[in-house]
Amino acid sequence: MRKLLGVLIGIAVAAVLFAPSAAKASLERANTSARTPVVMFPAYFFTTLKITVHQQTVAPECPSSGSFRVFFLNDESSAFSLVCQQKLLTMRYQANPAKPMPQRFSDQRGVDVRIEKYGKTESAPFYEPMYEALEEAGYVRDRDIRVAGYDSRLTPDMRNFLNRAKGLIEDTYRDNGNQPVHVVGHSNGPLYIQYLLTHTSQRWKDKYIHGFTPFAGNFPGQGILYPLFFTGLDVRDFTLPTTPESALSGAEMMLRNPSSYMSASDPRIFGDQETVVEDFSTGETYTPEDYRELLDDAGLSWAKPIADYYIGFVDFADPSAFPNVDVYAEKGSGIETVVGIGLDDLSVGQVVDDSNTFFTRDGDINQEDLTNDAVGVWDAMPCFHFSLTDNPGVDHFALPSAPGVLERLLADLGRPRSHCPA
Q1: Phi–psi pair at 341, nearest 5 degrees
Q2: What pLDDT score does 18 carry?
Q3: What are phi and psi of 80, to 5 degrees?
Q4: Structural domains of the chain, with CATH
Q5: Is the dihedral of CA 38, 44, 45, 51 positive or negative?
Q6: If you average pLDDT over residues 64-84, what whole number do you get?
Q7: Which of 364, 362, 360, 357 is nearest to 341 (CA)?
Q8: What DSSP letter does each residue of 294-358 carry, written as one string?
Q9: Label partner for 108 (CA 20 to 30 A): which of 37, 271, 351, 411?
Q10: Residue 417: pLDDT above 90?
Q11: Which pLDDT value is given to residue 22?
């Protein structure tokens, strides 16, 4: 079971990267005069970030100036080691209750983080099979296929995400003959879409939005985020750090980046249905509804205000938070999925080895069934279409390139919108 999380994800990613592009051949060419434009919202750290460093002092052992890029499966060499990258990507948190929570976070001094090539397909290279499949159907990159990338450390209430995403959708609508836009998201991407849809008017959605396709939307969060506060995560390949130094810097990054909490399982949905952390030193076990006790017991009480604010931050389950657009959800299932880890103790910066226990349940290799099924509450939306299609045996990373998923996406892009009374 050693490094089960990383091994399983590595196998899944390899299957995606080396699979034949069968999806392309199966898609029929669309009517180019009336194509529904697509704006893609990538998964966690699937957006290419350019980090520019100028005379930083927070990590004296690292280069004081220079630049590097961060995105999932980036294998570029860099003068900045993994530990240096993690330290420089860790947000500064100012525990000032007089400030609104989003304003308590800032980048390290001397560190500038920007989305590279915002709006363009190059900004999220993992989805190349999907772009190619859409091109086979007549789509044109950066015209009617665009990408609303985001800084994955941040939550959608930060750094002008909402206005930037709205602007891209509105531009895409106008640049394609006033065709309403279909928003597609993968994993964490649907959280950002849902925030957008619940922070815009119905009139805006009726004008600009054709529909919403979430690929394994992480709407209520997932259990594995809680142990990552102690082990860290290498966001370059989603494996667990293998040295004490990288585990410590990775865990500190996870603790201080607000999106970590937004991605952690919401006790209002999960309750005590899964164990996310066991402390071998005390025998104590923790479920999502025990997150406050977990932070207290770990000496991390300073993080409770962040957790209280951002766990369950993007509401989706209450009828008042339904997106009120047509939704065509996709998920995978039938794969052993890690939801928690038994740790030696509750110290920050642990390297997982053969002595650790992994808690699993059914899922898509990255998110458990409780996460992927939660979107089913939208079936209660009045008037608007809702469907949730299961893809047994298709893992989280293969979902956006699976032939059947792409065939349905193209068909859904061609469907007329539901016209629902205000």
Answers
A1: -140, 140
A2: 45
A3: -95, 115
A4: 4-19+37-413 (3.40.50.1820)
A5: positive
A6: 91
A7: 357
A8: HHHHTT-GGGHHHHHHHTT-S--SSGGG---S-EEEEEEESEEEEEEEEESSS-SSPPP-TT-EE
A9: 351
A10: yes
A11: 42
Its pTM stands at 0.93
Residue type (1 letter), 242 = T
What six digits make up the tokens of 359?
């808690």
Q: What is the pLDDT of residue 21?
A: 46
Q: How many helices (H) and strands (E) does the chain have?
A: 15, 15
pLDDT band at 354 (very low <50, low <70, confident <90, very high): confident
As a dihedral over the C-alpha atoms of residue 247, residue 253, residue 259, residue 264, rounded to 10 degrees, the angle is 30
Residue 200 carries which DSSP code?
S
Question: 161 near 16, Cβ under 8 Å?
Answer: no
Q: Which two tokens stand for residue 342?
A: 């038994």
Average pLDDT over residues 387-412: 98
Record the tokens describing residue 334, joined without a space.
Answer: 């039938």
Rounded CA gap, 344 and 253, in Å?
20
Please state, in angstroms and rounded to a whole number, the distance separating the CA atoms of residues 87 and 84: 5
Determine contact, residues 351/242, Cβ cutoff 8 Å. Answer: yes
Partners of 146 in beta bridges: 39
Express each pLDDT in 3-46 by its tens digit: 455 545 554 554 554 444 444 434 433 344 479 999 999 999 99
Q: Among 160, 161, 68, which residue's Cα sits nearest to residue 113?
A: 68
Q: Are the CB atoms for 58 and 84 separated by under 8 Å?
A: no
**Tokens for 304?**
């409770």
Residue found under tokens 């560190």: 111
When pLDDT is averaged across residues 288-306 and rounded to a whole number, the result is 98
Report the DSSP beta bridge partners of residue 181. Answer: 209
The arrangement of strands across the sheet holding 357-363 comes to 284-286, 277-279, 335-343, 357-363
